[in-house]
C-alpha cells in the first residue's frame, strides 16, 4: 500500500460509518466456493475497520488480518471484540507469515498489494488447494450519483481539476470485461478493480469462479459528501480545495436532489484455488 492508501487511516471513524458493506449473498457464495466451514482459518488482507470481517466471523471462521493502518486496525479490534479475530499492523508486502491458511480473503483492498508481488504472496500463505477469495464494490449506472456528478462538473473543474471522476459505467459493461478475462484471477482483477494494475496470477491458481451482485444504498446530504471524502481520489486533493468541493456537492444534493443520493453498486466476487503440487493447469 502506498502513501495515498494509508490516508484512509486518518479518517478511520468516518470510513467505518459511511463506506458500503457487501450483500450477504457474497459471503454465502464465498463459503460454498471456498468449501469453508466452521473453524476455517482465514487470512484477511486490509480489513479496515472490519466492514466485511463481521460476516466472516458470523460463519464461524477464525480470522487473522493484516492491516497497515494503525487507527483502522484498532477500530477493527474494538468492533470485533470477543470474537476470534487478530490483526498485525503492517503491509501484506512486508508481513512475515508464521503459518499457512485455508483461505485468503480481501474486500476492496487487494489492489493496494504491489502487482509484482500479490499473487506470489497469496500462494505462499495458502495451503495447497486453499482458496483465494477477492471481492470489490464498483459504482455503476443507476441511482442518481451520475446526475450529481454531472451537476458538480463546474465545482470539480474549479476545485479539483485533477479528479477524473467521469460517469459510472453500466454493470453489463464491467461484467463483459470481467468474464472475458476469466481464465486468470489477475486478469479478472485488472478489470474488476481498475486501480489494481497489470499482473497475472499464472500457474499458481486455478481459473476463478466469478459471481456478481447488483445492489444500491441511499445516503442523506451529509453522508453523500462524507462518502466521497473517504475515497483516495478525493483524499489526494489538498484540504483547502477539497473542503469547498465537498461542501458544494452537499449543497447540490440538498437543493437539486431533495437531500437524497442513491448509489448503485456492482459487487464482484472471484474465487480461485492454489494449485495442488503437480496439478495440471488445464485440469
Automatic annotation (TrEMBL):
Alphabetical list of Gene3D superfamilies matching this protein: Vaccinia Virus protein VP39
Molecular-function GO terms, alphabetical: methyltransferase activity
EC number: 2.1.1.-
Keywords recorded for this protein, A-Z: Methyltransferase, Transferase
Top enzyme category: transferase
Database matches in InterPro entries: Diverse_substrate_MTase, Methyltransf_11, SAM-dependent_MTases_sf
Stored Pfam families: Methyltransf_11 (PF08241)
The Methyltransferase type domain, residue ranges: 43-133
UniProt GO BP: methylation
Xref: SUPFAM superfamilies: S-adenosyl-L-methionine-dependent methyltransferases
PANTHER family reported for this sequence: METHYLTRANSF_11 DOMAIN-CONTAINING PROTEIN, METHYLTRANSFERASE TYPE 11 DOMAIN-CONTAINING PROTEIN
Family: Belongs to the methyltransferase superfamily.
Protein known as: Class I SAM-dependent methyltransferase
Organism: Actinophytocola glycyrrhizae
